[in-house]
Predict the 3D structure of the following.
Amino acid sequence: MSELHRINIPVANLLDNEGGALDRQMLFGEGFHVLKTRNGWAEGYRHSDGYNGYIAVEALADWVEPTNRVSDLGAHVYLAPDIKTVPVMHLPYQADVAVVGEDGPFLKLTGGGYVHKQQLENLTDLEPDYVRTAERFMGIPYLWGGNSQYGIDCSGLISAGLKGAGYKCAADSADQEATLGVFLNDENALQRGDLIFWKGHVGFMVSSTHLLHANGYHMKVMLEPLAQAETRILAMDGGAVTSRKRIMIE
């Protein structure tokens, strides 16, 4: 039996064990089902996709159903509805919040604090062009297991883009390759939004020729010609492209 909690810090690390290695990350407001706690660690799984891991207990709070999402590349939380006061927290892009009131141009959050309404959107507001969402991460530092503007990896970038379109997907690239979209053959011309997979790597096509991907070579989210990426990855023993896939979002 699990108990649903929410992340109560900007970004929480989801580890493979107590104090272990980073597997993924969770953003403020995301749900985490706690199975058991020990030594300051909560073992459980992410509400959105069932991803298992360990979260520091201090990063969790009681579950509150979110109403809004951060729509800018970050939003400050103030103790008072005044932009001239010192912010107490900085929420990342796509973090979920629960709004309980309004004070002028500010929205009041569950548990206290105010965020300017210009930096929030309703959970129902979607961006069908998921590549456009992913493009907002251009230049963000590469971080293995990262899922935020503070650091992101290849599969995290795919997840963020599709989240903006309201499309759920697996967390890791191998599972994304197995479950997302339909396979394209070599005769199919590539287009914006197509996925290119290697073993352990994935990126979005921005056009028929250019790939957007978070990678450890450039150590950031990078736009480059697909042919260039293919040549380099093959030369560095990353192998050839394993599949090309197309997502159908109505």
Notes: The radius of gyration is 19 Å.
